[in-house]
Design brief:
Layout: E1 6-12, E2 17-23, H1 25-35, H2 39-58, E3 63-71, E4 78-83, E5 87-92, H3 109-113, E6 116-124, E7 135-140, H4 147-157, E8 162-170, E9 177-187, H5 193-204, H6 209-214, H7 219-227, E10 232-239, E11 241-242, H8 248-257, H9 260-270, E12 272-276, E13 283-287, H10 288-297
Parallel strand pairs: 5-11
Antiparallel strand pairs: 1-2, 1-10, 2-9, 3-4, 3-6, 4-5, 6-7, 8-9, 12-13
Helix pairs in contact: 1-2, 9-10
Bound molecules: zinc ion (ZN).
């Protein structure tokens, strides 16, 4: 049985690790359907969305996290945004771009992303009108495989040692995402060195995250399989979803902001206006009547 998308926060019972894990199959599949991504771009986008959600959940409440991969590979760039309540949205610049499978027969996300930079922006309280100076961190990409790049970012920019695992399974035949998810395990400062070595040894032989998700596993089962005999406690569980902030009203506001002259021009030349949201690929069509309304009210 397939699990609904969810995210859990947990902690190891010995106090050494803070853990976040998520099953994101539905939201990754929805994003990839909306953007019509190639199989490798689906893996890249799915990993980026899952990683951004986990990152968003690991920071304080009311934070909004934006993760941008500015890269030279065929995908051209990836943007994902998540809040601490568990919603995420995102896109890739060239959704149709693809590359051959790696020599190990896997989707070669690293080759599709290529070299570049990872930028993470954290804003607190923007949604309630309380704006603090945003925190921004940037690091060069390590491999373009997303999880390794986020691990490197956390270590370098946030001084948090962690293990990040992200997986997206794309069904070979239907080219649909049929499993997605991952986890971030953060080392709490002062953690016992032996506990860290033991964790590294466990993770080195852990099954791939999509293995347990494909069997219908929850985030908790994924952790049980990854952590083996390391006891942990789940602190909370919440649903997660793909959700965009765009709307027809926002489309109207954007067109209104162009000014009367420009809108009159659209009306005369195109008899309407069409706007496509980058983040979710939703198309908003403003017909003649809507444009006349904007001109009359503007
Ligand atoms: Zn949108």
């Amino acid at each position: 049985m397939r699990q609904d998308d969810h995210l859990i926060q947990a902690a190891s019972n010995d106090g050494s690790f803070r853990i976040l894990a998520a099953v994101t199959t539905e939201l990754a599949a929805e994003a990839c359907r909306r953007h019509r991504t190639s199989p490798t771009a689906s893996a890249a986008l799915g990993r980026a969305l899952s990683g951004t959600l986990l990152l968003g959940a690991s920071f304080k409440d009311l934070e909004y996290v934006t993760v941008r991969f500015v890269c030279k590979g065929p995908i051209g760039g990836i943007v994902a945004e998540a809040n601490s309540r568990g919603t995420v949205r995102g896109y890739v610049r060239n959704p149709g771009a693809d590359v051959p499978l790696s020599s190990r027969g896997k989707l070669d996300v690293g080759a599709l992303v290529g070299p570049g930079m990872l930028h993470v922006i954290r804003e607190a309280g923007a949604e309630i009108g309380f704006v603090k100076e945003p925190y921004q961190g940037s690091v060069p990409l390590v491999s373009g495989e997303i999880a390794e790049d986020l691990t490197h970012y956390l270590a370098t920019s946030e001084q948090i040692n962690s293990a990040v695992a992200l997986g997206v399974f794309v069904d070979g035949e239907g080219e649909q995402v049929t499993a997605a998810g991952g986890y971030i395990i953060q080392v709490i400062p002062g953690a016992d060195e032996d506990a860290i070595s033991a964790l590294e040894a466990r993770l080195a032989v852990a099954p791939h995250v999509t293995d347990s998700i494909r069997r219908g596993g929850s985030a908790e089962l994924m952790l049980l399989e990854a952590l083996g005999d390391l006891p942990f406690t789940v602190l909370n569980r919440r649903p997660v979803a793909f959700e965009c902030k765009c709307s027809y009203d926002r489309a109207i506001a954007i067109v209104t902001a162009l000014g009367k002259e420009e809108v009159t021009d659209m009306l005369d030349k195109d008899r309407g206006a069409e706007l496509t949201c980058h983040f979710c690929n939703q198309v908003y069509f403003l017909d003649e009547e809507s444009l006349m309304g904007i001109i009359a009210n503007g």
